Amino acid sequence: MHVLPYLVAVYIFLTGCYGLATSRNLIHAVGCLAVCQCATYVLLLAVGYRDGATAPVFSDLKPGSRPVVDPVVQALTLTDIVVGATVTALLLALVLQIAKRHGTVDPDELRELRG
Q1: What are the C-alpha distances in Å from 70 to residues 14, 24, 47?
Q2: DSSP three-state, residue 54
Q3: Alpha helices of 1-115 — where are they, by DSSP H?
Q4: Which residues pair with 54 in a beta bridge?
Q5: Spatial distance between the Cα atoms of 43 and 70, rounded to a whole number of angstroms
Q6: Predicted local distance difference test score (pLDDT) of residue 41
Q7: Are 110 and 104 contacting, i.e. CB atoms less than 8 angstroms apart?
Q8: Ramachandran quadrant class, 68 (left: phi over 0; alpha: psi -120 to 50; beta: rest)
Q9: pTM for the predicted model, two decimal places
Q10: Cα(81)–Cα(101) distance, rounded to whole angstroms?
Q11: What pLDDT score was predicted for residue 34?
């Protein structure tokens, strides 16, 4: 088993977490969350990868003749991309409303939102 894709996924996730922890802008924070979400794409594709395997959609394949990649993992990755784009759009819309109501996107200046 190759370790490189898993290390890349961890690196991408930690990069997004570092950006999120040091962010002084809500738009930057949303972007860092999107980067953290991208780590799951790499992780899912690493789980479903097989050396020398082909796509399972070819009709000329006889069962058991060649290894094929797992199509469920690819479908989960596509679903993850759609959900990630939706969440990012929703968070950006919320940041836009915060900017309109409070006049800033700096989380330290949003004292009214603290409980």
Answers
A1: 27, 41, 9
A2: strand
A3: 4-21, 26-48, 71-102
A4: 68
A5: 14
A6: 92
A7: yes
A8: beta
A9: 0.81
A10: 30
A11: 95
Among 61, 63, 7, smallest CA distance to 39 is for: 7
pLDDT averaged over the chain? Answer: 88
Nearest 5°: phi and psi at 104? -150, 155
Mean pLDDT by 10 residues, the chain (115 residues): 89 96 94 94 88 75 75 90 96 94 86 64
Rounded to an integer, what distance in angstroms lies between the CA atom of residue 42 and that of residue 47? 9
Gap between the Cα atoms of 55 and 63, Å rounded? 13
Q: Which two tokens stand for residue 65?
A: 């003749």
Q: What are the backbone dihedrals phi and psi of residue 54, each rounded to the nearest 5 degrees, phi first?
A: -115, 170
Token digits of residue 106: 């700096």
Determine whether 58 is exposed, middle or buried from the number of CB atoms within 10 Å of its CB (0-12, 13-18, 19+).
exposed
Nearest in space to 38 (alpha carbons), one of 107, 106, 87, 4? 87
Question: Per-residue pLDDT tens for 98-111?
Answer: 999 988 898 888 87
Q: Per the structure block, which two tokens stand in for 64?
A: 């058991």
